[in-house]
Design goal:
By secondary structure, the chain is of the alpha/beta class. It is built from eleven helices and eight strands. Helix 3 links the parallel strand 3 and strand 4. Helix 1 runs parallel beside helix 2 and helix 7 crosses helix 8.
Length: about 260
């Protein structure tokens, strides 16, 4: 982490988990222990149906609410979809874009990811843009080439002044929900490479201000080591964000001096 130049963000991705009553119970439990985060911003990206209530429930403990997806159009005949403007109006601050599960199960492409990034920024949201390689791609030695392409594709057409709205999350697909985690060195190497891509696109000043998270089985045990890397500015947390003690330990790791 480098707090001098950029924000540290710990974001939970609840995926398709927690009913409204379970969300309420989580809120009551975390309010009792969280206090005021010292150095990091805390975000919970929750299922659509929980968003309005979550905005109210977590406001007191200064946890921002995010969504897990949005559509790239501002309106239209897209049954089952939700626009960035709709999310903004109900109090959402962040939105996850291009998660590997969306790419795998719902046929998201680099093109649609780029469109969603633009839609989110135009609506006043902060997109958390996910990039990452499969195990096969890592073993083939094409990780850096793939990540470079994904970052460039996602940011195509995004101006330098808009980059202050963008968060990048490196999530190696082979580490998501598997219990496997990239070593601190592996994660740091890729996050450093992501910053280098941004530097080439926008210059050093913009690059050093962009928050780059690590995702992929970050948990209470490995968070401190991962967050100690200079180019890792937070985490996009899956399973560990569903349990208050585990999520709090990660937050505390981000608040270390």
């Amino acid at each position: 982490m480098n707090r001098r130049y950029r924000k540290t963000i710990i974001a939970g991705n609840w995926k398709m988990n927690k009913t409204l009553s379970e969300t309420r119970a989580f809120a009551e439990e975390i309010k009792a222990v969280i206090g005021k985060p010292k150095w990091c911003e805390v975000v919970l990206c929750v299922p659509f149906v929980n968003i309005p209530a979550a905005v109210r429930m977590f406001k007191e403990c200064r946890i921002a609410i995010g969504a897990e997806n949005c559509h790239y159009e501002s309106a239209g005949a897209y049954t089952g979809e939700v626009t960035a403007e709709m999310l903004k109006e109900v109090g959402v601050k962040y939105v996850i874009i291009g998660h590997s599960e969306r790419r795998q199960y719902y046929n998201e492409t680099d093109s649609t990811v780029n469109k969603k990034v633009h839609a989110a920024i135009e609506a006043g949201l902060y997109p958390i843009v996910c990039v990452g390689e499969s195990l096969e791609q890592r073993e083939l030695g094409v990780t850096m080439e793939l990540i470079t392409y994904q970052v460039k594709a996602a940011l195509s057409g995004v101006s330098a002044d808009k980059m202050r709205h963008v968060v990048i999350a490196y999530e190696p697909i082979w580490a998501i929900g598997t219990g496997k985690t990239a070593t601190a060195e592996q994660a740091a190497e890729v996050c450093e490479a992501i910053r280098a891509v941004i530097r080439k696109l926008y210059g050093a000043r913009v690059a050093r201000a962009v928050t780059i998270q690590y995702g992929g089985s970050m948990n209470a045990k490995n968070a401190a080591e991962l967050l100690a890397q200079p180019d890792i500015d937070g985490g996009l947390i899956g399973g560990a964000s569903l349990k208050v003690p585990d999520f709090m330990q990660i937050i505390e790791s981000a608040n270390q001096e």
